[in-house]
Design a protein that fits this description.
Structural class of chain A: alpha+beta
Low-confidence stretches of chain B: 19-25, 42-48
Number of helices of chain A: 20
Number of helices of chain B: 15
Largest sheet of chain A: 7 strands, mixed
Oligomer: heterodimer
Distance between the termini of chain A: 76 Å
Strand order of the largest sheet of chain B: 2-1-3-4-5
Order of helices and strands of chain B: HHEHHEHEHEEHEHEHEHHEHEHEHHE
Radius of gyration of chain B: 31 Å
Strand content of chain B: 15-25%
Low-confidence stretches of chain A: 238-245, 610-620, 751-756
Radius of gyration of chain A: 68 Å
Distance between the termini of chain B: 82 Å
Shape of chain B: elongated
Largest interface: A-B, 43 and 38 residues
Largest sheet of chain B: 5 strands, parallel
Number of strands of chain B: 12
CATH architecture of the largest domain in chain B: 3-Layer(aba) Sandwich
Mean pLDDT of chain A: 81
Shape of chain A: rod-shaped
Number of strands of chain A: 23
Chain lengths: 756, 348
């Protein structure tokens, strides 16, 4: 699950965001546009309505004036019949008063402008007074056949009056004048309603209020010319001019009422009178439904947004869950859980994909199973083959070694017995050849075993000093012989490794170092490398060119021109052994600059029990007169051993089997000083058992050693575990001798120490 | 949603999204519901009904029972017993009583005082100069001290007035039109009227009479409104016609006046329109109920917070002439055509 952890949730988040954004933006956009258009339409509708009302009001007021106009006009109709014309006019005017309640006073001026009749509701009537009113604007104002509308006056401070004068077509008929109380217009205006708080009012040319639902404002002679909508209305009317009320009414707009509140205002002029009707509605009320709609929309939109978000969540989840199931399942199957099956039931391609995954997992499982079977089979075959090869190897090594071992012994004997130097020399050469053969055989068998994996390291903690000592012992002579300096740096370090294998590696490395060094010397030392130990072999030899530093580990490769001797297998074996130990051979070198070979091992701990020291080599004559009991099932070997040991001054008793050996021991008049047993004896007996039996028979632990041609790791282990020194066949006589000397010397010391 | 709730919600969403089936709790839905209802819930707080208190001053009990004013208040949305309380005190027809009544009403500290006649307005004016007063004045309110000017009263009193100085002349003119032969006109005043009001009337009538060439004398009726003694005085002076001054008192004894005038053969022009229907010869006046209804509009404005000082005083627009032909016949008078044309109603 690690690999996918970083991506966890991203798909869900992405889908959720996409869906949510899409849904929300779609919602908001649609709501916003809907709102915008609804807003515009509503406003337009409101404006239109208001305009209509204004126009209607203007029309009605104009009608009112026209009506009065008409009535006044009738008073100017030619009088019929005889009688005093003034009287007739008087009657006409009385009729006028009766018919038009709005007229408070009416006068008739004759053609020359003298007032001949005046009737009034409040004041006294005047008849025939003859007042000269020819300079009155009311007289001069009206053109023939037209009406003159005077300015609005406030009589007695609070009564709005307007004078109207009508002149007939025929000037001789005079002019009728009327004072019209405009409070009658108030009635009209106050009935105009827009919504709950909308109203209409009338202003004159200069913006003075003429009529208003609140009559008090009129009576106060309020001036509305400061209001923006009034100014606009007056300007508009003035621009358009003419009698066309519709053309003169500008587009409704926003204005302010005297209290400063915003209002929606429409206006229409009354061109005949020079007045303007304004229809206003407080903006709050006018746009109230609009705001309510916006509020509603906002709430609904919010609710819808929330729903959209929730739906997006659900949708994203619906989409991503199967995908995640697929992802997790794939990861599991990929990690090896081939039994895992995906559960995706979405009824679509994802389910099909899941099913394919499952099928794939099944097939994988099957093929794995099949493979495993095959692998198991092959492994078994291999094992069998390996075992066969091991057996062959073991057999071969055993069979090959025995004659070779014997040959070595015989040649040594031969060399010892040769009468002259020349023969000795030949014998020596033969011996060298035998040694070489033995070495080669060993090496080849080693490599085969290594390749067959027949060797497994037995790791133990041991002191590196042991190994270093053995190295010194092994190579000091050859180094001295070659005139080289061998220096082994002592170390108290403990390492954890296989001592046998490690020794082999170091032996090979050291041998190589010596072989390829002509001058100078070889240095072997240990170096701490953190928690590990590097064992280095340095030489001042010919060095290895960088391009050959890999090839040197190949089989049968010899650097230089092959003059150094050796078989070219040393490094090959060493490298394989190092690999077994979980390490490798490191090389640092340059032509003519010497080389450093190193192998790295783990540090170990000092084991509780001290190891036995390797016996120091040294040529002493302690063997003289020692009795050695040799047990070996091979007659040749027995012969060879006998000769060799006798040469050294030992007395040799040889037995083929354990029984024989015991019999010999009991038959002997003295106990042997040392025992030498072959590890592999006829039957199931091992040398170890024989040695034990002999010890039992002798009643004392006679120093014993094992010789073994068996290189099987188990045998070697057992042999080592027995505690008795083990010499592998073919045995080098020098080693044998050293061992015997050691054994005999050891036998003598404890004897002395143990003597009561 | 509070932050905590929204975090919870967010968690729930994530849990839900990542497949834990039970992780979608009711909390988000609940929160939604609350939110929506909270937003959609109206915030209208019912305005506590404010009860308007109107103090009415009447000359007599009848004045307290005035219906036209109440009608006007009803039309404007006030309900007696609901959002309107009208407390009325009357003077029992007497001057002192009226003053006392006005004081009582004023001391109850109503929102507005209403005085539907000049007399009561006078009393109210004396009783308070703080409490807004809506009046109907038959005389000149400016001269009466109620207001500084008609367009801007400037004090605590406003209302309507139907006084027109020239009306006196008009009425006398009408009287003369129907009875051309009259020379001496008896002008009736009431003891209940205040002197200042009286003076104004007398001044105007005197001027009018001069214009028309008539002789006048003022006769003050008694406080008990009995006209008999006054008529006796009239007889002595040999009055030709009768002209009652526009005071509410003469509305109360209009019937008696009509009868007495007819019996004594005195052409009379009254300001109170029902006078003509009661048998009086003529009446030329305004629609008083309309004025009383209009007073309600003033009360409404003041209750809504208007300052009486800024409310201009209105004047009536319509005057009606009623002529009683029967009475004219009985008095031996002929109705000239001009008068007939003028008359809005001729009562047969």
């Amino acid at each position: 699950m690690r690999a996918g952890a970083w991506a966890k949730g991203r798909l869900f988040r992405r889908y959720f965001l996409y869906f949510a954004l899409l849904g929300v933006s779609a919602l908001l956009v649609s709501e916003a546009t809907g709102l915008y258009f609804a807003n515009r339409e509503t406003r337009a509708a409101l404006s239109t309505l208001q305009r209509e009302k204004a126009l209607g009001a203007a029309l009605r007021i104009a009608q009112f004036a026209k009506d009065i106009e008409r009535q006044i006009g009738w008073t100017l109709l030619p009088q019929a019949g005889g009688g005093d014309p003034i009287d007739q006019r008087y009657v006409e005017l009385l009729k006028l008063l009766r018919q038009v309640p709005a007229i408070t006073e009416a006068s008739w001026l004759d053609a020359s402008g003298r007032e001949q009749v005046r009737v009034s509701r409040l004041g006294l009537d005047r008849i025939g007074a003859g007042l000269d009113r020819s300079s009155d604007p009311a007289f001069r104002g009206p053109k023939p056949g037209h009406t003159w509308f005077g300015p609005v006056d406030f009589l007695k401070e609070t009564e709005p009056y307007m004078a109207m004068a009508v002149a007939p077509e025929r000037r001789s008929e005079g002019v009728t004048l009327a004072e019209v109380n405009l409070k009658f217009v108030w009635d009209l205006v106050s009935r105009i309603r827009i919504g709950a708080t909308g109203y209409a009012y009338v202003v004159d040319r200069s913006g003075r209020l003429l009529s208003h639902p609140d009559i008090g404002l009129v009576l106060k002679k309020t001036d509305y010319s400061g209001l923006p909508q009034v100014q606009a209305a007056l300007a508009g009317g003035a621009e358009a001019g003419g009698p066309d009320a519709v053309a003169g009414s500008p587009e409704p707009g926003t204005g302010r009422d005297p209290q400063g509140n915003l209002v929606l205002a429409a206006s229409a002029p009354i061109p005949e009178l020079g007045w303007v009707v304004l229809v206003e509605q407080p903006l709050a009320e006018a746009y109230g439904p609009l705001y309510a709609a916006i509020g509603r929309t906002a709430v609904l939109a919010f609710g819808a947004v929330v729903l959209a978000v929730l739906a997006s969540l659900a949708l994203a989840r619906h989409v991503t869950l199967p995908i995640r199931a697929l992802q997790e399942g794939a990861t599991r199957i990929g990690a090896g859980a081939l039994g895992h099956r995906l559960e995706v039931k979405t009824g679509d391609e994802l389910q099909a994909l899941a099913e394919e995954f499952n099928r794939m997992a099944e097939r994988l499982a099957e093929s794995y199973a099949g493979l495993e079977l095959k692998v198991a089979e092959r492994t078994r075959e291999l094992e069998r083959a390996n075992q066969a090869r091991s057996r062959l190897l073991r057999a071969a090594s055993h069979d090959l070694r025995q004659p070779l071992h014997a040959l070595g012994l015989f040649v040594a004997q031969f060399g010892a017995r040769s009468p002259d130097a020349e023969t000795r020399h030949i014998a020596a050469q033969a011996g060298a050849a035998v040694s070489a053969l033995q070495e080669l055989l060993d090496a080849i068998l080693d490599i085969s075993r290594l390749d067959a994996g027949a060797i497994s390291p037995k790791v133990a903690d041991f002191a590196i000093a042991t190994l270093l000592d053995r190295l010194t012992t092994a190579f000091a002579p050859s180094a001295a012989e070659k005139g080289l300096r061998l220096r082994v740096v002592p170390s108290r370090l403990y390492v954890r490794s296989d001592p046998v294998l490690l020794e082999r590696i170091l032996l090979n490395l050291a041998a190589n170092a010596l072989r390829y060094t002509q001058r100078g010397g070889v240095l072997i030392g240990c170096r701490r490398r953190g928690g590990r130990v590097g064992i280095e072999v340095l030489d001042s030899g010919i060095g290895i060119a960088p391009e050959q530093q890999r090839a040197i580990f190949d089989e049968f490769y010899q650097a230089g021109d092959g003059q150094g001797g050796g078989l070219g297998l040393g490094l090959a074996i060493a490298a394989r052994l190092a690999g077994l130990l979980g390490s490798r051979i490191e090389v640092a070198s340059g032509l003519g600059m010497g080389s450093v070979f190193a192998v790295e091992v783990e540090r170990g701990e000092r084991p509780a029990a001290p190891q036995s020291c390797a016996p120091a080599g040294g040529a002493t004559d302690t063997l003289l007169g020692a009795l050695v009991l040799v047990v070996d099932d091979d007659a040749l070997v027995r012969d060879a051993m006998q000769s060799l040991l006798a040469q050294w001054g030992c007395t040799v008793a040889a037995a083929a089997t354990g029984d024989e050996a015991v019999a010999l021991l009991e038959g002997c008049d003295r106990l042997p000083d040392a025992l030498l047993c072959d590890y592999r004896l006829l039957g199931a007996e091992t040398g170890i058992e024989v040695i034990r039996r002999l010890h039992t028979a002798a009643g004392t632990a006679i120093p014993a050693a094992l010789v073994s041609g068996d290189t099987a790791p188990e045998s070697l282990r057992e042999a080592r575990a027995s505690g008795y020194p083990l010499l592998p066949k073919p045995v080098a006589p020098a080693k044998l001798r050293a061992l015997f000397e050691h054994l005999v010397a050891a036998a003598r010391v404890p004897k002395q120490a143990q003597s009561p | 949603m509070r932050p905590g709730q929204s975090a919870m919600f967010g968690e729930a969403c994530l849990a839900y999204a990542f497949g834990k089936e039970d992780a979608m709790p009711d909390t988000p839905l609940l929160a939604l519901t609350i939110l929506l209802t909270g937003l959609a819930a109206s915030e209208a707080l019912a305005q506590e009904a404010k009860i308007a208190r109107v103090g009415l001053v009447g000359l007599t009990e009848g004045g307290c029972g005035n219906q036209a004013f109440r009608e006007g208040m009803r039309d404007l949305g006030y309900r007696e017993g609901g959002n309107l309380v009208i407390e009325c005190r009357h003077g029992g027809g007497r001057y002192e009583g009226l003053q006392r009544a006005a004081q009582e009403v004023a001391s109850a500290k109503p929102d507005v005082m209403v005085a539907l006649t000049h007399l009561t307005a006078d009393a109210a004016h004396a009783a308070t100069n703080r409490i807004p007063v809506v009046f109907i004045a038959s005389s000149d309110p400016v001269a009466g001290g109620f207001a500084a000017s008609l367009s801007h009263p400037g004090g605590n009193m406003t209302g309507l007035t139907y006084y027109a100085g020239e009306l006196n002349a008009k009425r006398l003119e009408l009287l003369k039109a129907v009875a051309p032969g009259i020379r001496r006109v008896a002008v009736l005043a009431s003891a209940v009227m205040s002197q200042s009001v009286n003076d104004v009337y007398v001044r105007d009538v005197t001027a009018a009479a001069e214009t028309l060439g008539l002789e006048i004398r003022v006769f003050v009726t008694r406080e008990d409104n009995d006209l008999e003694p006054t008529f006796a005085e009239l007889d002595e002076w040999k009055a030709d016609a009768l002209y009652p001054l526009p005071t509410i008192v003469f509305a109360y004894n209009a019937q008696q006046m009509a009868d007495l005038a007819k019996w004594r053969g005195l052409p009379t022009v009254h300001w109170y329109k029902p006078f003509a229907t009661m048998g009086g010869l003529m009446a030329y006046g305004v629609d008083y109920p309309a004025l009383q209804r209009r007073a309600a509009a003033y009360v409404d404005k003041i209750l809504r917070g208007a300052d009486p000082a800024d409310l201009p005083i209105e004047q009536p627009t319509q005057y009606e002439l009623l002529v009683n032909r029967e009475t004219a016949d009985e008095l031996g008078l002929a109705i000239p055509p001009s008068l007939a044309l003028r008359a809005d109603r001729i009562i047969e």
